[in-house]
Amino acid sequence: MIVSIEIGGTFTDYIAVSDEGQYIEGKVHSTPDAPWMAALNALDVLFEECGVKIEAIAEILHGSTIATNAVIQRKGPKIGLLITEGFRDIPFIQRQHRGKDLYNWKFKKPEPLVSRSAVCEIRERVSKEGKVLVKIDGKETLKMIDDFLKRNDVISSLAISFLHSYVNPSNEKQVRDLILKEYPDLDVCISSEIIPQFREYERTSTILLTAFMKPIVENYLYLLDQKIRDKGIDAELFVCRSSGGVLPISAIVKYPAEMLLSGPSAGVSGAIQLSKLYNIDNILTVDMGGTSTDVSLITAGNPEITTESAVDKLPLAMPMIDIGTVGAGGGSIAWIDPGGMMKVGPQSAGAKPGPACYNIGGKDSTITDALLLNGFIRKEKFLGGRMELSVEKAKEAMRPLAKILGNSEYVIAEKIYKIAISNVAQAMRIVTIERGYDPRDYVLCAYGGAGPLFAANLAKEMGLKKCLIPVSPGIFSAWGLLVSDYKRDYTKTFLYKASDIDYQRIEEIFNSLKKEALSEFKQHNILMDNLSLNFSADLRYIGQQYELNVPVYLNKLKEQGIDLIIKDFNEIHKRRYGHNSPEEEVEIINFRLSPISHRDEIALNKEGFKDKENSKCEEERVLKIFHEEKFIDCRFISRDTLRGNFIGNGPIVIEENTATTFVPPGFVVSVGDFRNLFIEEL
Amino acid sequence: MSSKIDPFLLNILGSSFTSIAREMGISLLRSAYSSIVREAKDASTGLLDRNGKVVAQAEYIPMQMNSLSAAFEIFAETFDLEKLTPEEGFLTNDPFSGGQQIHDIIL
Q1: Cβ neighbours of residue A58 under 8 Å, at least 6 residues apart?
Q2: What is the mean pLDDT of residues A391-410?
Q3: B91 near B105, Cβ under 8 Å?
């Protein structure tokens, strides 16, 4: 049996699947004070309530927001930074910030994870060609570090970031070895091992995040692993990582920054699996939760990756899933701006005090209140019936808005819904049009608690022709974990003019990355019988600052030479920016490899899983919903009753434990193999 | 015909227009060769109506707010805009006719 456990802010979702196709899903409350407890609680439910045998569990796949939260709350170890002499202020100068804070004269730069007094300059220098210009004087350097650590005696984790270490790591390694000899209990990580890329600010920021995360991630995972063994479970534990896929604990503790922002990536892994199941190459994922909506893109079965992410405005240069986020979720508050326009979000009522209809003190009108008034959610059906919502409170919260805008509460509720659609469409635009992709080429896959309620209308807004609503969309991330593969990303910076490099050299560089990858996978006992190697390179026109990632197929490259990469780059540039200059010289700056070792597929049969243990099926009924400013009849159907031959014209509301799906008038819904829903415009 | 503007429609269309201006800006910044454009973000992009009034502008520099209209006026005076095709455009850096300083290029 394989179990996935996804720990979120409020809830911890879990799914268990057996080789015979038995399927159990559920949610328990998260336990922020001792995060691992929620995972153990989930396992307890499986053993005590669902009859799962302890020895049956073979693998546990785990995702958690512990890393991201630690950074956002700045709750972590005191870290120190060793940097090339003369460059002490790299973490503090940062890059120019201008954007949303253009007119904010109270703007404050993001605070780095290290204070200025915790940065120590080391006399060393390496040139950009990798030549050591200033060698490390062992004695002098050790003395400097001794003094530094005495002054900052709370430091438990050190980061080392020297200029051009990605070309020649010897100085970084030498200093690290020096320190570990004298201070074997200190955690030390070096930028040339974690992120051998140029751009010293982003590289330093990434290694600082790594140093910060290392003790946190180690403690958490080793503790979780221990608690699991204590229960008598003999399963291997794998952890979800940021650019998709999972890795065993031994690998994640080496690259702890890969746990950052890993939340959305599990859902994307799930969507990739769906794309394979249904042979749909292009999927646009929309994950709408309580506070925000995350949108990402899968093209030709591959997720869009970016190396320009940030956590709490601190740059993270590792490859991550490219996500467009917008503050639109179930708790997003509707308000009137000083100009008299109604807006929705990004402020959220959160879980406390929550939407007005939660009846726990919330006074603001939110998207959830709007959905309740419109009739899409039934007050007694919320969270599988565990929490009754108050229609009266929802109306009460809506009344001030209704008064100001001169409409009924129901009309306001519908407007809130429509503005939410428009807001999420912005995020969809960012990941498609802004990146040069046409949204009409994609199938919309909606999940999260609220996603399926908006899916059809979002598709209509952006011109997508089909929606796919997976089974249990409210816990789709837990599903994504189940079907994740083993994956890591390897990069090396080498700057070459395209005219100065030949196939041999490119092959040489990629082979060294491959060697590194295979050796590391072996070291962490990752099975490699089903391995795919994905090579790519970052290119730009000479004179540009930003590069574009170009996939590389070595055998094709051998046949057609470097010109193939240049041609592909020109095409990608045209698609992304609307123009290109094929006569301009091009340079290659980074070489990348993302090896993926495919895990065994889980047992899925076309009829979907055997009926879930705890499904509460209800008979179909017809109720009223508020649509286009009037009340109309709408079928309400329990999702668990739907089988492969079902087809129906909207309006239909399909209810299940973790989410609700809305099929508007003018749309038709059908049930596909594996019990996923497809919605299309008539 | 009612001339009352539906505030919700205004909200929705407004965000879309701003998106368009913003997408232009991002393309410009990311493909730029000039470090003044790509690092200092000293550039602006916008959407104008047929009379040259700014509908939406992605301003990276407040100094350039609404400067596009001034350039538009000159183009409108000098050329017959009715004959314009989507493949045609105007380019100026003349500070005496709608431009700002010589190094500033308006397209």
Answers
A1: A1, A2, A235, A236
A2: 92
A3: yes
- Chain A: residue nearest B33 by CA? A544
Question: Residue A9: its pLDDT value, please?
Answer: 78
B66 CB within 8 Å of a chain A CB:
no
Take residue A664 and report the two structure tokens written for it. Answer: 């508007």
Helix (H, G, I), strand (E, B) or coil at A438: coil
Q: What is the mean pLDDT of residues A377-405?
A: 89
ipTM: 0.88
Backbone angles phi, psi at A666, to 5 degrees: 95, 0
Inspect the interface and report whether the beta carbons of B33 and A573 lie closer than 8 Å.
no
CA distance A526 to A598: 10
| B19 phi/psi in degrees, rounded to 5 | -60, -45
Question: Of the candidates A103, A342, A543, which has its C-beta nearest B8's C-beta?
Answer: A342
Average pLDDT over residues A459-482: 93
Percent of chain B with pLDDT over 90: 21
What is the interface size between A and B, counted as CB pairs within 8 Å? Answer: 58
The minimal CB distance from A96 to the residues B10, B19, B41 is found for B41
**CB spacing of B26 vs A434 below 8 angstroms:** yes
Question: Does residue B78 sit at the A interface (CB-CB below 8 Å)?
Answer: no
Tell if the CB–CB gap between A579 and B38 is shorter than 8 Å. no
Closest in A102, A419, A577 to B11, CB measured:
A419
* B6 at A interface, C-beta within 8 A: no
Percent of chain A scoring above 90 in pLDDT: 73
Would the pLDDT of A509 be above 90? Answer: yes
pLDDT at A612: 52
CB contact under 8 A, A544 and B41: no
> Are the beta carbons of B7 and A340 separated by less than 8 Å?
yes
The string of DSSP codes covering chain B is: ------HHHHHHHHHHHHHHHHHHHHHHHHH---HHHHTT---EEEEE-TTS-EEEEEESSGGGTTHHHHHHHHHHHHS-GGG--TT----B--TTTT--STT--B-
Beta strands A236-240 and A59-64, pairing class: parallel
Q: Does residue A545 have a pLDDT over 70?
A: yes
CA–CA separation, A322 vs A336, rounded Å? 32
For residue B86, give how far its alpha carbon lies from the nearest alpha carbon of chain A (Å): 14
Rounded-to-10 torsion of CA A273, A279, A285, A289: -50
| Chain A residue with the nearest C-alpha to that of B9 | A419
Instruction: Reply yes or no on whether the pLDDT at A519 is more than 70.
Output: yes
Q: What is the DSSP string of A609-643?
A: SSPPTT------EEEEEEETTEEEEEEEEEGGG--
Provide φ and ψ at A636, rounded to 5°. Answer: -115, 120
Tell me the pLDDT band of B1, cut-offs 50, 70 and 90. very low
| Contacts A423 to B, Cβ<8 Å | 15
Reading the block at residue B31, the tokens are 């493909």
Which residues of A touch chain B, with CB atoms under 8 Å apart? 95-96, 98, 102-103, 340-343, 405, 415, 418-419, 422-423, 426, 429, 433-434, 541, 543-546, 573, 576-579
Helix (H) or strand (E) segment spanning residue A24: strand A23-29
Report residue A154 as tokens.
Answer: 């709370």
pLDDT tens-digit profile of B88-103?
999 989 988 878 888 8
pLDDT, residue B57, reads 86
Mean pLDDT of chain A: 91
With beta carbons under 8 A apart, name residues in chain A contacting B40: 96
Task: Pick the range with the lowest mean pLDDT from A14-28, A237-251, A488-502.
Answer: A14-28
pLDDT above 90: residue A447: yes
pLDDT digits (tens, 9 = 90+) for A608-638: 555 554 455 678 999 999 999 999 999 999 9
